[in-house]
Protein backbone atom coordinates (compact mmCIF):
# COMPACT_ATOMS: atom_id res chain seq x y z
CA UNK A 1 0.00 0.00 0.00
CA UNK A 2 1.31 3.46 -0.90
CA UNK A 3 1.83 6.08 1.76
CA UNK A 4 -0.18 9.11 0.72
CA UNK A 5 -0.03 12.32 2.81
CA UNK A 6 -2.81 13.01 5.32
CA UNK A 7 -5.42 15.60 4.36
CA UNK A 8 -4.17 19.12 5.28
CA UNK A 9 -7.71 20.20 6.26
CA UNK A 10 -9.13 17.36 8.34
CA UNK A 11 -5.96 15.23 8.82
CA UNK A 12 -7.72 12.14 7.45
CA UNK A 13 -5.46 9.22 6.59
CA UNK A 14 -7.84 7.87 3.91
CA UNK A 15 -6.57 10.02 1.03
CA UNK A 16 -6.09 8.80 -2.51
CA UNK A 17 -4.49 10.00 -5.72
CA UNK A 18 -6.62 11.14 -8.66
CA UNK A 19 -4.37 12.11 -11.57
CA UNK A 20 -2.10 14.89 -10.30
CA UNK A 21 -4.33 15.65 -7.29
CA UNK A 22 -4.70 14.09 -3.86
CA UNK A 23 -8.31 13.75 -2.67
CA UNK A 24 -9.79 13.35 0.80
CA UNK A 25 -12.98 11.24 0.76
CA UNK A 26 -14.06 12.49 4.20
CA UNK A 27 -14.08 16.28 3.63
CA UNK A 28 -13.75 16.43 -0.18
CA UNK A 29 -10.58 18.56 -0.12
CA UNK A 30 -8.32 18.31 -3.19
CA UNK A 31 -4.68 19.44 -3.27
CA UNK A 32 -1.30 18.90 -4.92
CA UNK A 33 1.99 18.34 -3.17
CA UNK A 34 3.19 21.69 -4.57
CA UNK A 35 0.31 23.60 -2.95
CA UNK A 36 0.91 21.80 0.34
CA UNK A 37 4.57 22.90 0.32
CA UNK A 38 3.50 26.51 -0.36
CA UNK A 39 1.01 26.43 2.54
CA UNK A 40 3.65 25.14 4.95
CA UNK A 41 5.99 28.03 4.12
CA UNK A 42 5.46 30.18 7.23
CA UNK A 43 8.68 32.15 6.74
CA UNK A 44 7.10 35.22 5.20
CA UNK A 45 9.73 37.87 4.49
CA UNK A 46 8.68 41.42 5.38
CA UNK A 47 10.67 44.23 3.77
CA UNK A 48 10.75 47.98 4.38
CA UNK A 49 10.28 50.70 1.75
CA UNK A 50 13.92 50.33 0.60
CA UNK A 51 13.80 46.53 0.32
CA UNK A 52 15.67 45.75 3.55
CA UNK A 53 14.46 42.66 5.41
CA UNK A 54 12.83 43.50 8.75
CA UNK A 55 13.11 41.34 11.88
CA UNK A 56 11.54 41.42 15.32
CA UNK A 57 13.31 43.96 17.56
CA UNK A 58 14.54 46.20 14.73
CA UNK A 59 14.33 49.99 14.84
CA UNK A 60 12.63 51.83 11.99
CA UNK A 61 11.84 55.39 10.96
CA UNK A 62 8.59 56.59 9.38
CA UNK A 63 9.15 57.88 5.81
CA UNK A 64 5.82 59.67 5.35
CA UNK A 65 3.37 61.64 7.50
CA UNK A 66 0.74 59.13 8.63
CA UNK A 67 -2.71 60.14 9.81
CA UNK A 68 -3.94 58.24 12.85
CA UNK A 69 -7.36 56.81 12.09
CA UNK A 70 -10.09 58.08 14.43
CA UNK A 71 -7.97 60.97 15.66
CA UNK A 72 -6.62 64.30 14.49
CA UNK A 73 -3.06 63.22 15.36
CA UNK A 74 -0.36 62.68 12.73
CA UNK A 75 2.78 60.52 13.02
CA UNK A 76 5.40 62.82 11.48
CA UNK A 77 8.03 61.85 8.95
CA UNK A 78 11.27 60.77 10.62
CA UNK A 79 9.58 59.44 13.78
CA UNK A 80 11.77 56.65 15.17
CA UNK A 81 10.18 53.44 16.37
CA UNK A 82 12.21 50.99 18.44
CA UNK A 83 11.68 47.29 19.10
CA UNK A 84 9.12 46.46 16.41
CA UNK A 85 7.24 43.18 16.30
CA UNK A 86 6.25 41.57 12.99
CA UNK A 87 2.70 40.20 12.72
CA UNK A 88 0.47 38.74 10.01
CA UNK A 89 -2.05 40.92 8.24
CA UNK A 90 -2.30 44.09 6.21
CA UNK A 91 -0.55 46.20 8.88
CA UNK A 92 2.43 43.92 9.48
CA UNK A 93 4.35 45.90 12.15
CA UNK A 94 3.14 46.10 15.75
CA UNK A 95 4.90 48.76 17.83
CA UNK A 96 4.65 51.48 20.47
CA UNK A 97 5.27 55.08 19.42
CA UNK A 98 6.12 57.69 22.05
CA UNK A 99 3.21 60.10 22.39
CA UNK A 100 0.80 57.81 20.50
CA UNK A 101 0.92 54.42 22.24
CA UNK A 102 0.44 51.03 20.62
CA UNK A 103 0.02 51.14 16.85
CA UNK A 104 0.12 48.95 13.78
CA UNK A 105 2.07 50.16 10.74
CA UNK A 106 2.50 48.99 7.18
CA UNK A 107 6.06 48.05 6.31
CA UNK A 108 5.89 50.09 3.10
CA UNK A 109 5.86 53.34 5.15
CA UNK A 110 9.00 52.68 7.23
CA UNK A 111 12.74 52.29 6.65
CA UNK A 112 15.19 50.31 8.73
CA UNK A 113 17.69 52.33 10.75
From TrEMBL:
Q: Which domain of life is it from?
A: Bacteria
- Domain Protein YjdM C-terminal: start-end pairs: 46-112
Q: Which Gene3D superfamilies does the UniProt entry name for this protein?
A: 2.20.25.10, SH3 Domains
A Pfam family this protein belongs to? YjdM
Chain ranges of the Protein YjdM N-terminal domain? 4-32
PANTHER family found in the cross-reference section: PROTEIN YJDM, PROTEIN YJDM-RELATED
Describe the family membership recorded for this protein in Swiss-Prot or TrEMBL: Belongs to the YjdM family.
Which protein are we looking at?
Answer: Alkylphosphonate utilization protein
